[in-house]
Design a protein that fits this description.
4 strands; globular; alpha+beta; 146 residues
Length: 146
């Protein structure tokens, strides 16, 4: 992903920190700037596997822009699933919720789940995108109440 978005050099030299568990990360910066209006929840995994279930219009396998939120059943996904890989995505949600609940001026207005079916995401996979979205929504409700 850093190659596609042109940020690899900044990530490699520590100028841009994507990991929400590390100090001085970009997520904390955006939250502190009070700029999170829309929280779009699509779990990804650091260095996640490419989507080799669907080829894009450019003839390449899909990028790793989506990772199942809940464990796919046997035969639904060709990669081994690790629950801990979505913890960075969950941490972003926790941070946004924490800020929103404690900041009257928080601009947060919309929260969406976003397990989608294009090649760079979940296109061609055999796990249910609908069920994944439902699992995210249920988790969002539980974490909000915590």
């Amino acid at each position: 992903m850093p190659d596609v978005s042109g940020i690899r050099e900044d990530v490699n030299n520590g100028k841009l920190i994507l990991d929400p568990f590390e100090d001085n990360n970009i997520i904390d910066d955006w939250i502190a700037q009070n700029m999170v209006v829309w929280l779009q929840v699509r779990p990804v995994a650091p260095n996640g596997p490419k989507n080799n279930a669907q080829i894009g219009s450019d003839g390449r396998w899909g990028r790793a822009c989506q990772y199942p939120f809940k464990k796919p059943a046997k035969g639904e996904w060709e990669n081994f699933w690790h629950a801990y890989k979505i913890e960075p995505s969950k941490e972003v949600v926790r941070k946004v919720f924490h800020y929103h609940q404690r900041t009257d001026a928080s601009p947060l207005r919309w929260i969406t789940t976003d397990m989608i079916d294009m090649p760079d995401y979940g296109g061609g996979t055999r796990y249910s995108l609908f069920e994944q979205n439902v699992a995210i929504a249920e988790w969002l409700r539980s974490i909000w109440h915590q």
